[in-house]
Amino acid sequence: QVQLVESGGGWVQAGGSLRLSCVASGSIFRINAMGWYRQAPGKQRELVATSTSGGSTNYADSVKGRFTISRDNAKNTVYLQMNSLRPEDTAVYYCNAEVQLWGQGTQITVSS
């Protein structure tokens, strides 16, 4: 079973910075895109930033120039550096990943 565990959230004054981390664990073969979404009270969940396995990134207009997404593929980890934070950035931030999994395997034995 694959798990995504986020960390790094907290309270910060306007203009401050925070760095979020998200680690994927489990029987992972490959992770394609990873990203961050957020949901403010009373609002729908929205895309914040994504990063493909090839290094392409995409940002919501509201965070461009302030947030930076990065990955450590060897550690199955994605980060979100958030600078110049604004009150409107207040939300629950969620990690998201497109994961290719290993199955548990099934034994094949061919007898001679």
Task: List descriptors.
single chain, 112 residues, mainly beta, 4-stranded antiparallel β-sheet, elongated
**Cα-atom Rg, whole angstroms?**
17 Å
| Beta strand count | 8
Order of helices and strands: EEEEEEEE
Tell me the span between the first and last alpha carbons.
Answer: 36 Å
Strand order of the largest sheet: 1-2-7-6
Q: Mean pLDDT, as a whole number? A: 94
Shape: elongated
Helix content: under 10%
Oligomer: single chain
The unreliable regions are none
Helix and strand composition category: mainly beta
Q: Please report the number of helical segments.
A: 0
Strand content: over 45%
- Main pleated sheet: 4 strands, antiparallel
Q: How are the SSEs placed, and which strands pair?
A:
Elements: E1 3-7, E2 18-25, E3 28-39, E4 46-51, E5 57-59, E6 67-72, E7 77-82, E8 92-101
Report what the structure shows.
With 112 residues, the chain is an all-beta fold. Helix content is 0%, strand content 50%. The protein contains no helices and 8 strands. The strands form 2 sheets. The protein has a 4-stranded antiparallel sheet, with no helix packed on it. The protein is elongated, with a radius of gyration of 17 Å. The termini are far apart. The mean pLDDT is 94.
Structure summarized in a few sentences:
The protein has 112 residues and is an all-beta fold.
